[in-house]
Amino acid sequence: xDNQEELRRQRRALKEEIEAADLGAGAPRxxxxxxxxxGAGAFQSAGARLRDRKPVAxxxxxxxxxxxxxxxxxxxxxxxxxxxxxxxxxxxxxLDRQAGEPLDVLVNGTLVARGEVVVVEDKLGIRxxxxxxxxxxxxxxx
Length: 142
Known about the structure:
Protein name: Flagellar motor switch protein FliN
Family: Belongs to the FliN/MopA/SpaO family.
Radius of gyration: 31 Å
Largest sheet: 4 strands, antiparallel
Subcellular location: Cell membrane; Bacterial flagellum basal body
Number of strands: 4
Number of domains: 2
Mean pLDDT: 79
Shape: elongated
Membrane topology: Peripheral membrane protein
Distance between the termini: 55 Å
CATH class of the largest domain: Mainly Beta
Structural class: alpha+beta
Keywords: Bacterial flagellum, Cell membrane, Cell projection, Chemotaxis, Cilium, Flagellar rotation, Flagellum, Membrane
């Protein structure tokens, strides 16, 4: 029973210290009585370390080498299976984009940019004309 009462007293004292620290530097602090528990200095220094701790920036090095799939979307079309089965070599499928409209650049299926097709040394490429904002990217995920 004596140990439980001692633990309760220590918890109360620690709670008071934390509440006082949360009020800020200008607020009066109520120090727990030194006889409340042994090792008060350790709790006080731990509280100071927590208050003074600066947030650590995330270490992105872990994810920089993860491969992703970049896809360029020219356009799309909706059609019934009956029409799809009747397609033959040379058939033309009308897409839902206008000529000259920018292509969508998707990374793992998420829209990240728009751009136009360019030719670089006999290879196709894309020149980014617009990078999608983070808010717009979140919208496309929903």
